[in-house]
Amino acid sequence: MRSVDQLATDQAAPEHPTDDRFPPWVRVLFVVGLLYLFLVGIKALETGIKSFGSEFTDSLFASVSNPIAGLFVGTLATVLVQSSSVTTATIVGLVGAGSLPLDLAVPMIMGANIGTTVTNTLASLGFLRRTKEFRLAFAGATMHDFFNLLAVGVMLPLELATGFLTRLAERAADILTALGWGGFEKADSPIKSAVKAPVKLLDRILESFNASENVVGIVMLIFGLGLIFFALAYVTRNMRLVMAGRIERSINTVLMKGGGLSAIAIGIVITVMVQSSSITTSVLVPMIAAGVVTLRSAFPITLGANIGTTITAMLASLASESEEGLVIGLVHFFFNTIGVAVFYSIPILRPIPVKIAERLAVLAEVRKSIVVVYVVGLFIVVPIIGVLILQ
After folding, report:
1. Alpha-carbon Rg of the chain, whole angstroms?
2. SS3 helix, strand, coil % of the chain, rounded to 5?
3. Fewer CB atoms near the end CB (10 Å): N or C, the chain?
4. DSSP assignment string, 263-315
5. Could you read off the pLDDT of 287-323 as tens digits, one per residue?
6. pTM of the complete model
């Protein structure tokens, strides 16, 4: 029988299928189809929210009355669904429907960045019984946590005080809209027409049964969220099969050449390809534990994954009815990109997340209870208490 450590390690490592029934080009076609379903899901979610009217949306977000509560909600939601892609896509849909104001959506996006780091932290627990390997794996996982925590700690107060991220995103959205992104002003935009068609068909079917607005809204919400979960799960699975083996080879090739900016680039590319920053960062955990990759070499790849994951919100904005959906997608992009630029380009700041992670890992190596307190406290207890206090 295989040990718990072996099973957990296998889960943390990428799949290496040897009997894939489909060639890579077929998998890529699957991905294109799944991305279309993803956009349909965003549109259905947006339509479902609008069907309930303003009273529903007012009550839905009554508990999120300030930006800090929004931060905790974003963190907790991402931990629960185990996907920042789902959280950010949902936020884009809510903003596009006019149900969620930008000033609350921005900290939710930041919270999603914190929540998504729980996956690779859990992956490191597979090495819990192997002391030295666990220390390296836990440090490799938590340096992602601390980077996002520090980025939020610096940029959220600045955003609340100046609104610089929102203003930057609004200007960029104006430029992209003028260039034709999303076709917000064009009723006959091909992308929008293709995405709207299934939603309109479902709406007509429901109308034929004389369904009430509330029933239509519930069905659209369930249909939309179901498509979002389904599409993202299978996009990740198919791209993982296409990329199997290539991820480690790409990482090793870049690191052999010195890492740095090229390592950030490979983190971006891999994450965009597999549509999951968790896969990219979780692949690094066993490599760090085995001593194949050092913490400082893996750090820029982690930063690249943070930037690459923003593609999901940008894709979701294609299905949005308003430019605000694009704005929040761009906020996600600028938040992660500026955070990486600040912490990686300034020498005195660059090692901070790694050093904090190393010190915590040393403590966790001696007292395993610290691991439980850290994971449960940071990702569950603190967000719940924060929401309860600030609602």
Report:
1. 21
2. 80, 0, 20
3. N
4. HHHHHHHHHHHHT-HHHHHHHHHHHHHTTSS-HHHHHHHHHHHHHHTTHHHHH
5. 788 787 788 888 999 999 999 988 878 887 777 767 8
6. 0.73
